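Service request form, structural biology core

Requester: graduate student, group of Dr. S.
Request type: structure prediction, single chain
Budget code: on file
Notes: please return the result as C-alpha coordinates.

Sequence provided:
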Amino acid sequence: MSTVAVASAEQPPLAFHSNVGSRHIPYGPLPRQKLDIYVPKNGAVKATILYFYGGGWVSGARWYYRLFGRAMAARGFAVVVPDYHLYPAATFPAFVEDAALAFKWMHDHAAELGGNSSRLFVMGHSAGAHISTLLALDPSYLGAHGLKTSSIKGVVGLAGPYTLDPLKWTGVKDIFATSRDAPHVARPIKLVKSDAPPMLLLHGERDRIVGQHASVNLANALSAAGSQAEAKVYPNIGHFEIFAAYLWGWRWRASVLKDTESFIEARLASR
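Core staff response, request fulfilled:
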Protein backbone atom coordinates (compact mmCIF):
# COMPACT_ATOMS: atom_id res chain seq x y z
CA MET A 1 0.00 0.00 0.00
CA SER A 2 1.13 3.57 -0.59
CA THR A 3 1.74 6.14 2.09
CA VAL A 4 -0.89 8.41 0.53
CA ALA A 5 -4.51 7.39 0.48
CA VAL A 6 -6.03 8.08 -2.91
CA ALA A 7 -9.78 8.33 -3.21
CA SER A 8 -12.04 9.47 -6.00
CA ALA A 9 -14.06 12.63 -5.51
CA GLU A 10 -17.09 13.92 -7.33
CA GLN A 11 -16.38 17.12 -9.19
CA PRO A 12 -18.86 19.72 -10.40
CA PRO A 13 -19.55 20.03 -14.13
CA LEU A 14 -16.83 21.98 -15.92
CA ALA A 15 -17.06 24.40 -18.80
CA PHE A 16 -14.04 24.64 -21.09
CA HIS A 17 -13.38 27.37 -23.58
CA SER A 18 -11.49 26.96 -26.84
CA ASN A 19 -8.30 28.59 -25.63
CA VAL A 20 -5.01 27.38 -24.23
CA GLY A 21 -6.58 25.85 -21.18
CA SER A 22 -7.74 25.83 -17.60
CA ARG A 23 -5.64 25.48 -14.45
CA HIS A 24 -5.81 24.18 -10.89
CA ILE A 25 -8.59 21.67 -11.53
CA PRO A 26 -8.91 19.01 -8.81
CA TYR A 27 -8.94 15.39 -9.93
CA GLY A 28 -9.02 14.06 -6.37
CA PRO A 29 -9.54 15.24 -2.79
CA LEU A 30 -5.90 15.81 -1.80
CA PRO A 31 -4.04 19.13 -2.24
CA ARG A 32 -1.54 17.80 -4.78
CA GLN A 33 -4.22 16.12 -6.90
CA LYS A 34 -4.72 18.99 -9.32
CA LEU A 35 -4.24 19.28 -13.06
CA ASP A 36 -3.97 21.81 -15.86
CA ILE A 37 -5.62 21.49 -19.25
CA TYR A 38 -4.64 22.74 -22.71
CA VAL A 39 -7.09 22.55 -25.61
CA PRO A 40 -6.95 23.58 -29.27
CA LYS A 41 -8.07 27.14 -29.97
CA ASN A 42 -10.44 25.97 -32.69
CA GLY A 43 -12.05 23.42 -30.38
CA ALA A 44 -11.35 20.46 -32.69
CA VAL A 45 -9.69 17.71 -30.63
CA LYS A 46 -8.02 14.75 -32.35
CA ALA A 47 -7.26 12.94 -29.11
CA THR A 48 -6.73 13.62 -25.41
CA ILE A 49 -3.30 13.08 -23.85
CA LEU A 50 -2.51 12.61 -20.17
CA TYR A 51 1.09 13.75 -19.65
CA PHE A 52 3.25 12.83 -16.65
CA TYR A 53 6.41 14.86 -16.15
CA GLY A 54 9.71 13.51 -14.91
CA GLY A 55 11.80 14.45 -11.90
CA GLY A 56 13.03 11.21 -10.38
CA TRP A 57 9.79 10.74 -8.40
CA VAL A 58 11.03 13.54 -6.09
CA SER A 59 10.43 16.80 -7.98
CA GLY A 60 8.32 18.45 -10.65
CA ALA A 61 5.33 20.72 -11.09
CA ARG A 62 2.65 20.82 -13.75
CA TRP A 63 3.04 24.53 -14.48
CA TYR A 64 6.52 23.92 -15.93
CA TYR A 65 4.81 22.25 -18.89
CA ARG A 66 2.75 25.12 -20.24
CA LEU A 67 4.81 25.39 -23.42
CA PHE A 68 4.46 21.66 -24.03
CA GLY A 69 0.71 21.77 -23.43
CA ARG A 70 0.29 24.68 -25.79
CA ALA A 71 2.51 23.07 -28.43
CA MET A 72 0.43 19.90 -28.43
CA ALA A 73 -2.85 21.83 -28.33
CA ALA A 74 -1.70 23.71 -31.43
CA ARG A 75 -1.47 20.30 -33.13
CA GLY A 76 -5.07 19.44 -32.29
CA PHE A 77 -4.66 17.56 -29.03
CA ALA A 78 -6.22 18.22 -25.66
CA VAL A 79 -3.53 17.80 -23.01
CA VAL A 80 -4.05 17.07 -19.32
CA VAL A 81 -1.02 17.63 -17.06
CA PRO A 82 -1.51 16.49 -13.45
CA ASP A 83 0.66 16.88 -10.43
CA TYR A 84 1.22 13.69 -8.47
CA HIS A 85 2.59 12.81 -5.05
CA LEU A 86 6.36 12.84 -4.69
CA TYR A 87 8.92 11.39 -2.30
CA PRO A 88 9.43 11.88 0.65
CA ALA A 89 5.78 12.83 1.22
CA ALA A 90 4.79 9.61 -0.55
CA THR A 91 6.31 6.36 -1.73
CA PHE A 92 5.50 3.83 -4.43
CA PRO A 93 2.79 3.15 -5.54
CA ALA A 94 1.19 6.50 -4.54
CA PHE A 95 2.23 8.27 -7.74
CA VAL A 96 0.85 5.49 -9.94
CA GLU A 97 -2.39 5.55 -7.96
CA ASP A 98 -2.54 9.29 -8.63
CA ALA A 99 -1.97 8.55 -12.30
CA ALA A 100 -4.93 6.18 -12.35
CA LEU A 101 -7.14 8.74 -10.65
CA ALA A 102 -6.06 11.42 -13.14
CA PHE A 103 -6.81 9.03 -16.00
CA LYS A 104 -10.25 8.37 -14.54
CA TRP A 105 -10.83 12.12 -14.48
CA MET A 106 -9.74 12.46 -18.10
CA HIS A 107 -11.94 9.53 -19.11
CA ASP A 108 -14.98 11.05 -17.42
CA HIS A 109 -14.39 14.57 -18.77
CA ALA A 110 -13.13 13.77 -22.28
CA ALA A 111 -16.32 15.00 -23.95
CA GLU A 112 -16.13 18.30 -22.07
CA LEU A 113 -12.62 18.75 -23.42
CA GLY A 114 -13.90 18.34 -26.96
CA GLY A 115 -12.77 14.73 -27.36
CA ASN A 116 -14.20 11.37 -26.42
CA SER A 117 -13.31 8.55 -24.07
CA SER A 118 -12.28 6.19 -26.88
CA ARG A 119 -9.35 8.44 -27.87
CA LEU A 120 -7.27 8.63 -24.73
CA PHE A 121 -3.47 8.45 -24.69
CA VAL A 122 -0.89 8.44 -21.91
CA MET A 123 2.51 10.04 -22.24
CA GLY A 124 5.44 10.72 -19.92
CA HIS A 125 9.10 11.61 -19.65
CA SER A 126 11.66 9.80 -17.47
CA ALA A 127 9.94 9.00 -14.14
CA GLY A 128 6.71 10.04 -15.84
CA ALA A 129 7.31 7.46 -18.56
CA HIS A 130 7.85 4.84 -15.86
CA ILE A 131 4.51 5.84 -14.30
CA SER A 132 2.80 5.79 -17.70
CA THR A 133 3.93 2.27 -18.54
CA LEU A 134 3.06 0.91 -15.10
CA LEU A 135 -0.42 2.36 -15.53
CA ALA A 136 -0.71 0.62 -18.89
CA LEU A 137 0.78 -2.73 -17.86
CA ASP A 138 -0.60 -3.34 -14.36
CA PRO A 139 -4.41 -3.63 -14.56
CA SER A 140 -4.90 -3.11 -10.83
CA TYR A 141 -4.48 0.67 -10.98
CA LEU A 142 -7.23 1.43 -13.49
CA GLY A 143 -9.21 -1.54 -12.23
CA ALA A 144 -9.62 0.26 -8.91
CA HIS A 145 -11.68 2.83 -10.82
CA GLY A 146 -13.71 0.42 -12.91
CA LEU A 147 -11.54 0.85 -16.01
CA LYS A 148 -9.36 -1.50 -18.05
CA THR A 149 -5.93 -0.90 -19.52
CA SER A 150 -7.60 -1.18 -22.93
CA SER A 151 -9.08 2.25 -22.14
CA ILE A 152 -5.61 3.55 -23.04
CA LYS A 153 -5.42 3.88 -26.82
CA GLY A 154 -1.65 4.18 -26.76
CA VAL A 155 1.40 5.14 -24.70
CA VAL A 156 4.26 7.44 -25.66
CA GLY A 157 7.26 7.08 -23.35
CA LEU A 158 10.28 9.38 -23.37
CA ALA A 159 13.53 8.16 -21.82
CA GLY A 160 11.82 5.96 -19.25
CA PRO A 161 13.69 3.68 -16.79
CA TYR A 162 11.55 0.68 -17.67
CA THR A 163 14.17 -1.94 -16.84
CA LEU A 164 15.46 -0.39 -13.63
CA ASP A 165 15.45 -2.50 -10.49
CA PRO A 166 14.75 0.33 -8.02
CA LEU A 167 15.70 -1.73 -4.98
CA LYS A 168 19.25 -2.00 -6.32
CA TRP A 169 19.68 1.71 -7.10
CA THR A 170 20.73 3.67 -4.02
CA GLY A 171 19.20 6.90 -5.25
CA VAL A 172 15.64 5.58 -5.36
CA LYS A 173 15.44 2.42 -3.28
CA ASP A 174 13.72 4.20 -0.39
CA ILE A 175 11.04 5.48 -2.77
CA PHE A 176 10.24 1.91 -3.77
CA ALA A 177 10.82 0.21 -0.41
CA THR A 178 7.17 -0.86 -0.28
CA SER A 179 7.79 -3.13 -3.28
CA ARG A 180 10.49 -5.13 -1.49
CA ASP A 181 8.32 -8.24 -1.13
CA ALA A 182 7.25 -8.12 -4.79
CA PRO A 183 9.85 -6.05 -6.67
CA HIS A 184 8.45 -6.92 -10.10
CA VAL A 185 5.41 -4.68 -9.52
CA ALA A 186 7.61 -1.58 -9.83
CA ARG A 187 9.35 -2.74 -13.02
CA PRO A 188 7.54 -2.32 -16.35
CA ILE A 189 9.89 -4.84 -18.00
CA LYS A 190 8.55 -7.49 -15.59
CA LEU A 191 4.90 -6.71 -16.36
CA VAL A 192 4.98 -7.34 -20.10
CA LYS A 193 1.81 -8.93 -21.48
CA SER A 194 0.29 -9.86 -24.81
CA ASP A 195 -2.56 -7.35 -24.67
CA ALA A 196 -0.71 -4.22 -23.60
CA PRO A 197 -1.76 -0.89 -25.11
CA PRO A 198 0.42 -0.03 -28.14
CA MET A 199 3.56 1.83 -27.16
CA LEU A 200 6.00 4.19 -28.81
CA LEU A 201 9.17 4.43 -26.73
CA LEU A 202 11.50 7.30 -27.64
CA HIS A 203 15.06 7.67 -26.40
CA GLY A 204 18.17 9.73 -27.01
CA GLU A 205 21.39 8.04 -28.05
CA ARG A 206 23.36 10.27 -25.69
CA ASP A 207 21.16 9.75 -22.65
CA ARG A 208 23.58 9.31 -19.73
CA ILE A 209 20.85 9.13 -17.08
CA VAL A 210 18.71 6.34 -18.52
CA GLY A 211 20.39 4.27 -21.20
CA GLN A 212 18.64 3.67 -24.51
CA HIS A 213 18.57 -0.05 -23.73
CA ALA A 214 15.60 0.63 -21.43
CA SER A 215 13.33 1.59 -24.32
CA VAL A 216 14.78 -0.94 -26.75
CA ASN A 217 14.48 -3.84 -24.31
CA LEU A 218 10.93 -3.03 -23.27
CA ALA A 219 9.81 -2.62 -26.88
CA ASN A 220 11.43 -5.93 -27.81
CA ALA A 221 9.86 -7.72 -24.84
CA LEU A 222 6.41 -6.35 -25.63
CA SER A 223 6.73 -7.29 -29.29
CA ALA A 224 7.88 -10.80 -28.39
CA ALA A 225 4.83 -11.17 -26.13
CA GLY A 226 2.50 -10.20 -28.97
CA SER A 227 1.87 -6.54 -28.15
CA GLN A 228 2.51 -3.61 -30.48
CA ALA A 229 5.59 -1.64 -29.47
CA GLU A 230 8.33 0.33 -31.17
CA ALA A 231 11.49 1.98 -29.87
CA LYS A 232 13.05 4.95 -31.65
CA VAL A 233 16.53 6.16 -30.76
CA TYR A 234 17.59 9.65 -31.86
CA PRO A 235 21.27 10.46 -32.50
CA ASN A 236 22.99 13.23 -30.55
CA ILE A 237 20.06 13.60 -28.13
CA GLY A 238 20.33 13.43 -24.34
CA HIS A 239 17.92 12.78 -21.50
CA PHE A 240 16.38 16.25 -21.35
CA GLU A 241 16.76 17.20 -25.00
CA ILE A 242 14.32 14.50 -26.07
CA PHE A 243 11.57 16.38 -24.25
CA ALA A 244 12.81 19.81 -25.32
CA ALA A 245 12.54 18.72 -28.97
CA TYR A 246 8.75 19.05 -28.69
CA LEU A 247 9.13 22.79 -28.19
CA TRP A 248 9.57 25.59 -30.68
CA GLY A 249 13.23 26.29 -31.36
CA TRP A 250 14.30 22.73 -30.52
CA ARG A 251 12.31 20.69 -33.01
CA TRP A 252 15.15 20.52 -35.49
CA ARG A 253 17.06 18.36 -32.99
CA ALA A 254 14.79 15.32 -33.25
CA SER A 255 11.52 14.38 -34.96
CA VAL A 256 9.79 13.46 -31.70
CA LEU A 257 6.74 15.65 -32.32
CA LYS A 258 6.21 14.31 -35.83
CA ASP A 259 6.73 10.73 -34.68
CA THR A 260 4.31 11.18 -31.79
CA GLU A 261 1.67 12.64 -34.09
CA SER A 262 2.13 9.79 -36.56
CA PHE A 263 1.80 7.18 -33.80
CA ILE A 264 -1.38 8.74 -32.43
CA GLU A 265 -2.93 9.17 -35.85
CA ALA A 266 -2.15 5.55 -36.73
CA ARG A 267 -3.77 4.40 -33.52
CA LEU A 268 -6.85 6.51 -34.19
CA ALA A 269 -7.14 5.01 -37.65
CA SER A 270 -7.06 1.47 -36.26
CA ARG A 271 -10.07 -0.32 -34.84
